[in-house]
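Table S2 (continued). Query chain:
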Amino acid sequence: MALHAGGALSDRHGAGRVTLAGTALLVAATLPFTVADAPAAPLTAVLLVARGAGLALVQMPATAVAYSSVSTTEIGDATTLVNIVQRVGGALGAAGVVAVLTRAGGGGDGRAWAFAALSALSALILLPALLLRRAERVREAG
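Corresponding output:
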């Protein structure tokens, strides 16, 4: 559902704005996990759904922009490249979180450090999102 909403919102408001909103949601929904005590189960469920929605609001506009920026003859290569980057990035991200969790000793503190690392990595999405929004403004200005 969130991927569909991300596409519709991107069509209406532009990929840059939607990516920025998705990044803000992703970071905001990750930060509560950076404390030593885990949030209660109902709050955890809500936060994980919000993280998923934030990821969708980041992923869909970025993918659409990647595909729309290449010619029809290059779309096969673009699809392959986007797929590889998503899979390798996901695997490296998961391995990084496990490494932080293991290094920090697991438990509450380890989990907090792992989610702090996820929050920092998620915040890095702001850089390309701001560049995307800037490019949209230039295009809108003519």
